[in-house]
Specification:
By secondary structure, this protein is of the alpha+beta class. The protein has helices spanning 3-16, 50-59, 61-64, 68-71, and strands at residues 22-26, 30-35, 38-43.
Length: 72
């Protein structure tokens, strides 16, 4: 999965749920995304392997809903 697609999915789902507090902090090799207190680290690669992308999206399930990323 492309990094930009992963970020787009997360931000679009947050907008669907009317969550306004999605913050990004840029780093050298990673980007930190904070959504209602839950922090996930997104590696700064063009392509993110499926396992890593799923674990990032699964970590956001308490905020964005259970299995929201499986249907997207």
């Amino acid at each position: 999965m492309k990094r930009r697609d992963l970020k787009r999915k997360i931000i679009e789902r947050a907008q669907e749920l009317d969550i306004q507090d999605v913050y990004r902090r840029e780093g050298g090799k990673h980007e930190l995304l904070i959504c209602q207190g839950i922090q996930v680290t997104i590696p700064r690669h063009k392509d993110i392997d499926t396992y890593t992308a799923e674990s990032i999206m699964k970590a956001l399930e308490p905020v964005l809903g259970k299995d929201w990323w499986r249907n997207a």
